[in-house]
Amino acid sequence: QVRLVESGGGLVQAGGALRLSCAASGRIFSNYAMGWFRQAPGKEREIVAAITWTGALIYYADSVKGRFTISRDNAKNTVYLQMNSLKIEDTAVYYCASDRAPRRSRFPTRNEYEFWGQGTQVTVSS
Q1: What's the rounded Cα separation, in Å, for the pair 81 and 37?
Q2: What is the DSSP letter of 89?
Q3: Predicted local confidence at residue 104, as pLDDT
Q4: Antiparallel, parallel or unpaired: β 120-125 and 113-116
Q5: What share of the chain is helix, strand, coil (3-state, %, to 5)?
Q6: What values do phi and psi take at 116, rounded to 5?
Q7: What pLDDT is attached to residue 44?
Q8: φ, ψ for residue 79 (rounded to 5)?
Q9: What's the pLDDT band for 100 if we cut at 50, 70, 90?
Q10: Cα–Cα–Cα angle for 114, 60, 44, nearest 5°?
Q11: pLDDT band at residue 126, thresholds of 50, 70 and 90?
């Protein structure tokens, strides 16, 4: 059974930084693209960043480009999201997700993310 567990969320002042981690288990982590999503109160869940199984392709939403960095450590079965220069509008529950299919050469679509973590709260205060 695939399991994703996020950690690293918390309360931080605007301009600060956090690093989120997502530990995966249950299958060969290195074969699957991973994504970070977030959902703010009253808003739809949106993609923040994604990384293909090889790490060769990386995507960022325009709202986080230049501030967030996604990376993966296949030896630790973990994907990270380094968040710098945090803004109040970054406040949300952050989720990691794993692709349904292995070794995909492109980013998964939203519906192709099959497994999700429970989420970790990130709150940015003024």
Answers
A1: 10
A2: G
A3: 95
A4: unpaired
A5: 5, 50, 45
A6: -130, 150
A7: 97
A8: -115, 145
A9: very high
A10: 55
A11: very high
Q: What percent of the chain has pLDDT over 90?
A: 98
CA dihedral 54, 56, 61, 66 (to 10 degrees): 120
Residue 102 is which amino acid?
P
Give ∠ CA 16-18-23 in degrees, rounded to 5.
Answer: 175
Residues in the chain: 126
User: What integer is the mean pLDDT of 72-99?
Assistant: 97
The amino acid sitting at 109 is T
The two tokens of residue 113 are: 């993310």
Quick one: tokens of 94?
Answer: 């952050």
- Cα torsion 43, 63, 22, 19: sign: negative
Output the average pLDDT for the chain: 97
Select from 39, 115, 36 the least CA-distant residue to 70. 36
